[in-house]
Amino acid sequence: MYVAFLFSTVCHEAAHALVAKWGGDNTAYVGGQVSLDPMPHVRREPFGLILIPMLSLFMSGGGAMFGWGSAPFDPFWQIRYPRRAALMALAGPMTNFALAAVAALVMHAGIAMGYFFPAGGLQVVATNGGILEAFAVFISVFLKLNVLLGVFNLLPVPPLDGYSVLGLFLPEDVFLRLLEVIRSPAYSIFGLLFAWHALPYIINPAFSFAARVINLYGAAGY
Predict the structure, then answer these.
(1) pLDDT value at residue 121
(2) Using CA atoms, how far apart are residues 66 and 94, in angstroms rounded to an integer?
(3) What is the pLDDT of residue 192?
(4) Measured between alpha carbons, how far is 222 from 204 in angstroms, rounded to an integer?
(5) 173-212 per-position pLDDT tens digit
(6) With bands split at pLDDT 50, 70 and 90, how would you rate the model's confidence at 93?
(7) Which of 33, 73, 178, 207 lies most in the core, judged by the most C-beta atoms within 10 Å?
(8) End-to-end distance of the chain based on CA atoms, in angstroms?
(9) What are residue 124's phi and psi, to 5 degrees?
(10) Whole-prediction pTM value?
């Protein structure tokens, strides 16, 4: 679970950093975040990428994990180019969905070759034990985690990516006023609390939709 989280989060933040660089903001690039090397990301967020995930795994007995990453950007660049900043925000969740699609392709390949069989929803089980059994668990966790990260981060509340993605759809003056809201820690705390409580009502339908799209239903499907 931790390996899946670390790799997925590094890809998410590297995508933010890369699209920001393409849009003219080199802040994250200078900080080394345009990279799949986890070390620049860990140096920026040691608590979110190591300490809190490990602590939450330990406290939950391995059943749950919480953590975060971040990529720096120039807020004045965001004000000058709100559409580019919105694309930067969108890049992270879209990367998670792309990783989920890769995981689904790996699962389908494993099923076609007789290594896996679908176990319902977004999971596969190995036909034999050993390393294949461990990989089946990993790829199932990896798929579900990236669907979760993509959906959660697209919720349109501060400070999540979905709030900044609104810049692609709202008039520029309205979006710039909304950006002022995100600068208040109180709104960010409220947004995170709202997202945390809303997630259980959203994620299971999202998992079911993803399972239908990639057709991984089994006998124990949703």
Answers:
(1) 81
(2) 20
(3) 87
(4) 9
(5) 898 888 887 777 888 888 889 998 999 899 999 999 898 8
(6) very high
(7) 33
(8) 22
(9) -130, 160
(10) 0.92
What's the pLDDT tens digit per position in 141-155?
Answer: 999 999 999 999 999
CA atoms within 13 A on the CB side of 11: 19
Q: What is the DSSP letter of 126?
A: E
Structure tokens at 132: 């294949």
DSSP label at 50? I
Token pair for residue 46?
């040691």
Q: Which amino acid is at 66?
A: F
CB 101 within 8 A of CB 150: no
Residue 197's Cβ-count burial label (10 Å; 0-12, 13-18, 19+) is exposed
- In angstroms, the Cα distances linking 127 to 143, 216, 222 are 19, 16, 22
**What contacts 24+ positions apart, CB below 8 Å, involve 154-159?**
154/93, 155/195, 155/198, 155/199, 155/202, 157/190, 157/191, 157/192, 157/194, 157/195, 158/182, 158/187, 158/188, 158/191, 159/188, 159/191, 159/192
Angstrom distance (rounded) from CA 73 to CA 80:
13
Q: What is the pLDDT of residue 52?
A: 94
Q: Domain-by-domain residue ranges, the chain?
A: 1-74, 81-222
Sequence length of the chain is: 222
- Please give the pLDDT value at position 187: 82
Residue type, 91: A
Q: What would you report as the CA-atom Rg of the chain, rounded to the nearest whole angstrom?
A: 18
What is the token pair recorded at 215? Answer: 């057709």
Most distant pair of Cα atoms in the chain: their distance: 58
